[in-house]
Amino acid sequence: RCEHGSPWHPRAEACRMDSVGDTLQRLRETFSAGRTRPAEFRATQLEGLGRFLRDNKQLLQEALARDLRKPDFEAEVSEFSMAQHEIHLALRNLRAWMKDEKVPRSLGTQLDRAFIRKEPFGLVLIIVPWNYPLNLTLVPLVGALAAGNCVVLKPSEISKNMEQVLAEVLPRYLDQSCFAMVLGGPEETGQLLEHRFDYIFFTGSPRVGRIVMTAAAKHLTPVTLELGGKNPCYVDDNCDPETVANRVAFFRYFNTGQTCVAPDYVLCSPEMQERLLPALQSTIARFFGEDPRSSPNLGRIINDKHFQRLQGLLGCGRVAIGGQSDQSDRYIAPTVLVDVQETEPVMQEEIFGPILPIVNVRSLDEAIDFINRREKPLALYAFSKSSEVVKQVLARTSSGGFCGNDGFMHVSLASLPFGGVGASGMGRYHGKFSFDTFSHHRACLLRSQGMEKVYSIRYPPYTPRNLRM
Ligand code: NAD
After folding, report:
1. pTM value?
2. Is the CB–ligand 1 distance for residue 128 below 6 Å?
3. What is the pLDDT of residues 182-239, one digit of tens each?
4. Is any atom of ligand 1 closer than 6 Å to the C-beta of 401?
5. Percentages of the chain per state (helix, strand, coil), in multiples of 5
6. Catalytic residue among 178, 233, 260, 403
């Protein structure tokens, strides 16, 4: 195989070993032959993913540092350990998850066997974004391989150091008859999407999500869309400002704000804002020092395009904290904006950077109304010492996930489904939810040829007796 381990490398002509069509055909043949179905084969692939992580940790850490200057701690908790945990969980539960699931029977099916069979879809396409380029590659891959599928992986071309490591190293750890990688950007992905897949798992922006879903519709291919949006963070007056500042700042500035589930903006009263601002100021100083630019705990913006977009957002409202930026380093200081208008770009688009606007509301009702007037978010956060207030926000809104009195801790639990609702996406994964997402749930009833006399009462010619059946 070529040095990139890829059948098709659009940026390196020498690696074009065969066409994508041929590769897909090869994977389809593997699937049709039943090669990926046995538990042993699936477990071998999952063990391969585990070895890939262990053997190449330094290489992967370096790639994350080069692409995003991701601090090692953040890489550890949000990339390596989540992926390792998913592999471990899938290996431990594989056989139980694969088992046919018995279901209750009716009077007329008492003598039959009724069950749900978890069947692999076949050929799965996984498309990955750049912000958690290892986690968002491996976690869906674990689910797809555990469920017995063949996989085509399309990493992000934007996190280019990770793309290169994945392309060169990952294929060595997986059976080449069930796995292929295709590299490229929008154009190549567009071409890839013209082919028929049995399932498409996409993580990325709502804009591209629409393109993926449109392409999938042509073949009636089912999709999971893991998208983004603006995640509200309501802060009630009944809060300890220092605690809220610590928790909101940690999750807003984690990965330099480039997180789909980051709290995107704070909703609070003007009085709470007065108490929160000094607390945020001291939290930011404690986390990143007086000069965050020289802090090892703050990453960088992925590329110039996103840097310029974020620099534009710094002009919205009034800078209360931070606001500095440096193009040469793609550095944006942890920033808090106040006096922000709803109509300004910072409140219209997903921020995806270290900028936190505060929007004032006069009451809980007004906050809930503000949230409900917008697209359903991927995550929603509510802070209050009163559990009643948190419960009210939960009960009167909708979002992919919810966390009371903290940031995206709910995502760390593989026992919870991860996914959006409405414009923030469709479908769910993590843990067993991943296995189920990548499996067709086939409804099965097995009956013998006996008891024909009893069953014959349903046949025509119909008489009143049929109706009493
Ligand atoms: P993106 O939508 O620009 O790109 C995602 C993938 O789609 C990449 O692999 C890219 O090559 C491909 N792509 C880009 N343009 C395309 C086109 N025109 N046709 C076909 N494919 C195309 O997203 P991104 O900038 O990489 O990531 C940021 C977005 O992803 C944010 O909106 C964020 O909220 C979202 N996100 C969501 C989750 C989640 O789990 N819900 C996780 C991370 C990121």
Report:
1. 0.95
2. yes
3. 999 999 999 999 999 999 999 999 999 999 999 999 999 999 999 999 999 999 999 9
4. no
5. 45, 15, 35
6. 260
